């Protein structure tokens, strides 16, 4: 397999298709919901949670079999059915139309992979094994969750506001860069925790 190019995508407003809405498809749909994407789900049946999302207007749900034209206008598709032949057919159609495709748990039929992610507000740390060992990726994620505790969420938000002030200042470019680097140091985090006891309590293990 060629090397993967890591990136974080903005999916807000983009059309995403998920085929399958059961035990495997539901969490994939849930992950897409957080991005603000326009989500269309095609499945013969759907879990209660997916049906509730549809009733709430969060997704478009079609309870029927997949049709090739379901991919029309899609930016990406996630395929979560238990039929190998159907998965392959959807993948082939996606390739023909230039639509990014992820067939869950089938690395050879994936243009992209779901990483194991640690989220601390705007800080996201993603780990991928290119589908070779999701269990290893999850183990590493758990280690990172201990290393980067909840306190990082508030600290990153504070760094963002401070960065705006520094960039808008009249300081020389070199001085701005030096300040930005110093503010992002481990020492700066520990100082912030020391000044805010309640934040430090939340961030134990950070």
Give structural notes.
The protein is of the alpha/beta class. It is 44% helix and 18% strand. It contains eight helices and seven strands, in the order E-H-E-H-E-E-H-E-E-E-H-H-H-H-H. The strands form two sheets. Strands 3-2-1-4-5 form a five-stranded parallel beta sheet, with helices on both faces. Strands 6-7 form a two-stranded antiparallel sheet. Helix 1 (25-33) links the parallel strand 1 and strand 2. Helix 5 (151-168) runs antiparallel to helix 6 (173-183). The longest helix is centred in the C-terminal third of the chain and has 18 residues, at 151-168. It starts with 14 loop residues before the first strand and ends with a helix. The relative contact order is 0.10. Residues 199-206 have low confidence and may be disordered.
Question: What value does the Rg take, in angstroms?
Answer: 21 Å
Structural class by sheet pairing and helices: alpha/beta
Q: How many strands in all?
A: 7
In round numbers, the mean pLDDT is: 90
Beta-strand proportion? 15-25%
Distance between the termini: 35 Å
Morphology: elongated
Numbering strands along the chain, what is their spatial order in the largest sheet? 3-2-1-4-5
Percent of residues in helices:
40-55%
Largest sheet data: 5 strands, parallel
Number of helices: 8
In N-to-C order, the SSE pattern is: EHEHEEHEEEHHHHH
Low-confidence stretches: 199-206
């Amino acid at each position: 397999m060629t090397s993967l190019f890591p990136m974080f995508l903005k999916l807000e407003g983009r059309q995403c298709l998920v085929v399958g809405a059961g035990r495997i498809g539901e969490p994939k749909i849930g992950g897409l919901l957080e991005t603000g994407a326009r989500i269309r789900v095609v499945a013969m049946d759907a879990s209660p949670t997916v049906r509730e999302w549809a009733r709430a207007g969060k997704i478009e749900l079609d309870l029927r079999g997949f049709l090739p034209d379901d991919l029309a206008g899609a930016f990406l598709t996630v395929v979560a059915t238990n039929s190998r032949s159907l998965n392959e057919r959807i993948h082939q159609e996606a390739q023909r139309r230039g639509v990014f495709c992820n067939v869950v748990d089938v690395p050879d039929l994936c243009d992209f992979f779901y990483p194991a992610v640690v989220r601390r507000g705007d800080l996201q740390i993603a780990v991928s094994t290119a589908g070779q060992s999701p269990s290893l990726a999850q183990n590493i994620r758990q280690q990172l969750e201990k290393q980067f505790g909840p306190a990082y969420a508030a600290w990153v938000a504070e760094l963002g506001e401070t960065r705006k002030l520094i960039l808008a200042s009249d300081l020389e470019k070199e001085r701005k860069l030096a300040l930005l680097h110093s503010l992002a140091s481990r020492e700066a985090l520990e100082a912030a925790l020391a000044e805010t006891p309640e934040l430090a309590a939340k961030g134990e293990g950070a």
